[in-house]
């Protein structure tokens, strides 16, 4: 498994594979890898001949008051997991490689980026779209894979790729969950023992909404069981993230973000 630090080194490796007629998949991550990330690697190995996993904690998608400094980091553990999963290369660029001195260009997505997370974290998706565009431009993959756990992020990236006519297929991979339903997330490490016991109630709540329960009732139930705040719990169009019209014939998605102590959990399910 090749360990790559620079864009030039990455392009040399990928150019060699492409010259041999091989297809390339990119799995972008921020590290602190868990079984959900490894599932993405497995899906990538099915989708392409070669798999590159990037590990980059992107500073531009964190607001000043958010958890950039304490975001989980475990490079040695990540590399061991990726070697076992069969990745062909791991790209670990320093911040200066992605945002060199004088960097002054950002993507500002609208559409699917505006509601929900866009209301509570207004600069988040600009940081996400900018870094993903840079990762795709550097790696030039045939396909890039993202987990459905960050469903709005997936919708924003698909919108960006479509709008900018980028030559890559974006593939979503179903959310990996614990046995009790909690969506796997690097931030689950922040939960106390008591909070970890309560956390799966978020999945239960959105499942109930998908079956027809009122979102307001489900949000109130989360507060009753111990969540401190519900930022949103809504049914939206699965592509545009506009309010869902059940008579449209289009797929819907229940999306939620809620605070459990100092940890913000997000989750979603299909309607």
Provide a brief overview of the structure:
The protein has helices at residues 7-19, 35-47, 75-85, 95-98, 117-120, 124-139, 151-163, 193-198, 201-210, 215-225; strands at 2-4, 24-29, 50-55, 89-91, 143-147, 169-173, 229-237, 252-260, 263-270.
List the topology elements.
Elements: E1 2-4, H1 7-19, E2 24-29, H2 35-47, E3 50-55, H3 75-85, E4 89-91, H4 95-98, H5 117-120, H6 124-139, E5 143-147, H7 151-163, E6 169-173, H8 193-198, H9 201-210, H10 215-225, E7 229-237, E8 252-260, E9 263-270
Parallel strand pairs: 1-4, 2-3, 2-5, 3-4, 5-6
Antiparallel strand pairs: 7-8, 8-9
Helix pairs in contact: 6-7, 9-10
How far apart, in Å, are the first and last alpha carbons?
Answer: 40 Å
Instruction: Count all strands and give the number.
Output: 9
Look at the structure and name the CATH superfamily of the largest domain: HUPs
Radius of gyration: 19 Å
What is the CATH first-level class name of the largest domain?
Alpha Beta
Order of helices and strands: EHEHEHEHHHEHEHHHEEE
Quaternary status: single chain
Coarse shape = globular
> Uncertain runs with pLDDT below 50, 5 residues or more?
none
Strand order of the largest sheet: 1-4-3-2-5-6
Q: Write down the CATH topology of the largest domain.
A: Rossmann fold
Summing up helix and strand content along with how strands pair, one would put the structural category as alpha/beta
Instruction: Report the portion of residues in β strands.
Output: 15-25%
């Amino acid at each position: 498994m090749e360990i790559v630090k620079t864009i030039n080194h990455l392009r040399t490796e990928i150019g060699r594979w492409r010259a041999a007629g091989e297809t390339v998949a990119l799995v972008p991550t921020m590290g602190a890898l868990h079984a959900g990330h490894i599932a993405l690697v497995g899906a990538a190995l099915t989708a392409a001949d070669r798999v590159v996993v990037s590990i980059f904690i992107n500073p531009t998608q964190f607001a000043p008051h958010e958890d950039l400094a304490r975001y989980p980091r475990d490079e040695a553990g990540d590399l061991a997991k990726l070697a076992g999963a069969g990745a062909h290369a791991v790209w670990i660029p320093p911040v200066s490689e992605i945002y060199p001195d004088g960097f002054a260009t950002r993507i500002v997505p609208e559409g699917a980026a505006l509601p929900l997370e866009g209301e509570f974290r207004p600069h988040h998706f600009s940081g996400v779209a900018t870094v993903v565009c840079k990762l795709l431009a550097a790696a030039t993959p045939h396909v890039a894979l993202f987990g459905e756990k960050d469903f709005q992020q997936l919708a924003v990236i698909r919108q960006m790729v479509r709008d900018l006519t980028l030559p890559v297929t974006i593939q979503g991979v179903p959310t990996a969950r614990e046995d009790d339903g909690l969506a796997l997330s690097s931030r689950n490490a922040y939960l106390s023992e008591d909070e970890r016991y309560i956390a799966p109630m978020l999945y239960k709540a959105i499942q109930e909404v998908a079956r027809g329960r009122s979102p307001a009732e489900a949000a109130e139930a989360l507060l009753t069981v111990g969540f401190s705040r519900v930022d949103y719990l809504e049914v939206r169009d699965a592509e545009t993230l506009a309010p869902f019209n059940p008579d449209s014939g289009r797929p819907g998605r229940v999306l939620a973000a809620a605070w459990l102590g100092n940890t913000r959990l997000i989750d979603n399910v299909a309607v």
